[in-house]
Amino acid sequence: MTQLFIGLMSGTSMDAADAALVDFSAGPPTLIATHRAPLSSELRGALLALCAPGPNEIERMAALDTQLGEIFADCALALLKKAGVKADAVIAIGSHGQTVRHQPAGTYPFSLQIGNPALIAQRTGITTVADFRRADIAAGGQGAPLAPAFHNAVFRSAQRNRIVINIGGIANITLLPRDAKQFVTGFDTGPGNVLLDAWAERHLGKRMDEDGRFAASGKVNENLLNEFLQDNYFSLAPPKSTGREHFNLAWLDTMLKNHGSVPAQDVQATLCELTAASISDATRRHAPTAEEVLICGGGARNIHLMQRLRARLQPRAVDSTEKYGASPDWIEAMAFAWLAKRTLEGKPGSLPSVTGAGHEVVLGGIYRAKLTYPQV
Ligand SMILES: Nc1ncnc2c1ncn2[C@@H]1O[C@H](COP(=O)(O)OP(=O)(O)OP(=O)(O)O)[C@@H](O)[C@H]1O
Ligand SMILES: [Mg+2]
């Protein structure tokens, strides 16, 4: 008997809605099918505008909540069609939603994801679990990162100390000690692709620096890199998490003001180095005994970034999770399928040793598609 779940993810990069159909019936989770629905430039622009304070936010947010709910539902339906699987065969969907604000350290801590889960449940006919971050924040945690619990379930080794680094818009690290008695820890290291994408968009008119070619064509400006690394976030002790509200083009423009005219390709090279340096600094400080480094997220596709990571993290083995049997592009979506399963089982989803929550909590809100409750 299969145990099918769907994970839906749209991360900080706002590049696409990702859908993964995962079977949890035996041993390690099996990825059955995937579907990616790129976000239109218009929608992406509207979402980006919502990430910073502006007029009429409630109305704009509510409309985008519905629009994204439809997009996520269509993405799940397209996935099922591709896989030749009926909705009835799927136990539940775990939908992360699109983060529009993440402020876990404010006076009134919150993290806000949109993409109406009630709509996803009604349109697909599949019970949908969403709003995964709130319970952890209510328990005193950051509500992020959430992927480490899944990394622990899939990539922990009894032979080697491993770290998993997910390079999405923001990059996060998971420390997996080989000693089963030791806690798993993890945190956001800082920008992953978010600044690389923004600078590539401004100077190349493209959404990303494909394979890191633009960065590879420039020279790292050491003064600028040092100024980037002076940012307070990098020296903060974990637990910590961050987002677009901190690392964005306005942040970069402020930094650039003190550095005359740095050629655009050198800025890109320096931003790429910032991602590699902040990850390697975090590794040196918090995971000095790590032997294997597993990279996932879109950043694993950036050839230049992977080279810079290998150079900075040597003599450790640095490889895409592909080498460990899991496509780097779908780990995050798979994680939310897994988190939905945890929720329906009444099991905790986040790790207090990662998020800083006072205790373990069952994550998410359940939006039922039917009158009967799905059985796990
Ligand atoms: N061939 C490539 N070359 C360079 N960069 C790439 C390539 N493919 C993907 N990327 C980068 O990966 C990003 C998308 O990665 P991903 O989907 O993992 O991030 P995300 O949506 O922000 O997820 P999250 O924040 O949840 O981890 C793109 O915006 C781009 O910067
Ligand atoms: Mg993405």
Question: What this model shows, in words?
Answer:
With 376 residues, the protein is α/β, with parallel strands linked by helices. The protein has two domains: 4-143 and 331-367, Nucleotidyltransferase, domain 5; 147-324, Nucleotidyltransferase, domain 5 (2-Layer Sandwich). Helix content is 39%, strand content 21%. The protein is built from 14 helices and twelve strands. Strands 1, 2, 3, 4, 5, 6 and 12 form a seven-stranded mixed sheet that branches. Strands 9-8-7-10-11 form a five-stranded mixed sheet, sandwiched between helices. A hairpin with a 5-residue loop joins strand 1 (4-10) and strand 2 (16-23). Helix 1 (41-50) packs across helix 2 (57-83) and helix 5 packs across helix 13 (331-345). The longest helix has 27 residues, at 57-83. The radius of gyration is 20 Å and the shape is globular. The chain starts with a strand and ends in a 9-residue tail after the last strand. The mean pLDDT is 97.
Low-confidence stretches: none
Bound molecules: adenosine-5'-triphosphate, magnesium ion
How many H/I helical runs?
14
The largest β sheet comes out as: 7 strands, mixed
The CATH superfamily of the largest domain is known as: ATPase, nucleotide binding domain
Shape: globular
CATH class group of the largest domain: Alpha Beta
Mean pLDDT over all positions: 97
Strand residues, percent: 15-25%
List the domain count as a whole number.
2
End-to-end C-alpha gap = 12 Å
Structural class: alpha/beta
Q: Approximately how much helix is present in the residues? A: 25-40%
Element order: H for helix, E for strand: EEEHHEEHEHHEEEHHHHHHEHEHHE
**How many DSSP-defined strands?**
12
Quote the CATH topology of the largest domain. Answer: Nucleotidyltransferase, domain 5
**Which architecture of the largest domain per CATH?**
2-Layer Sandwich
Output the radius of gyration.
Answer: 20 Å
